Amino acid sequence: MRTTDLSGQLLVATPEIDEGVFFRSVILVLHHDDEGAQGIILNRPLDAEIDAILPGWGRLAAGAPVVYHGGPVQFDTALGVVAMPARSGDGEGLRRLFGSVGLVDLDSDPSAVSALVHGVRIYAGYAGWSAGQLESEIEGGSWFVVPREAQDVFAPESGALWHDVLARQAGPFALVATFPKDPSLN
After folding, report:
1. Which PANTHER family did the record assign (predicted)?
2. pLDDT in the model for residue 182
3. Per-residue pLDDT tens for 16-28?
């Protein structure tokens, strides 16, 4: 049973996850309730230009206009995450999730959305957990749960995000940021 709503928090892969798509990943939890959780991997840019897949959206990109690997679930679908100013509300294909983070309907006209957002990231797929699965993984030591900071969602250097998020934490989390990618080489 879920005890805390993790929506808007970050999941940072612990060294227990030593391979695969979640190795050194940083996940933004988009939604969490008693039925499960969904999130997106923030630090996995792909070698695919946004406009090659979704024409017109590349000019709204926050950072490099590339698609990101959001997770292994429904990898053949795209999800648009936007930075929304405080004054804007839902509408024009936009839905605020929390803070300045929202979703955009990618069937919307990018020109109509451009004045309403500060930037967009496009994700192929997402990460998903069934009821109780995420809580079990956290208890099992696979994930650190930490608060997000505004710059995390649209971090320009997503390759350093795992290290940067852990390094700013207090106590032992900061130490984990110094772990080598391959501990056997230590």
Report:
1. UNCHARACTERIZED PROTEIN YQGE, UPF0301 PROTEIN YQGE
2. 64
3. 998 999 999 999 9
Instruction: Write out the E strands in 42-153.
Output: 45-49, 66-69, 73-83, 94-98, 101-104, 119-130, 143-147
Q: What is the largest CA-CA distance in the chain?
A: 52
Residue 93 falls in which region: left (phi positive, over 0), alpha (psi -120 to 50) or beta: left
What pLDDT is stored for residue 63 in this prediction? Answer: 87
Alpha helices in the chain, H assignment, sequence order: 50-53, 110-114, 133-139, 161-167, 172-176
120 close to 81: Cβ distance less than 8 angstroms: yes
The CATH number given to whatever domain includes residue 168 is: 3.40.1740.10
Burial of 28 (0-12, 13-18, 19+ CB in 10 A): buried
- Single out the residue of 50, 35, 180, 176 nearest to residue 124, CA to CA: 50
Residue 2 domain flag: no
The verdict on residue 64 lying in a domain is: yes
| Inside any domain, residue 185 | no
Residue 86 pLDDT = 74
Distance from CA of residue 132 to its chain's centroid? 20
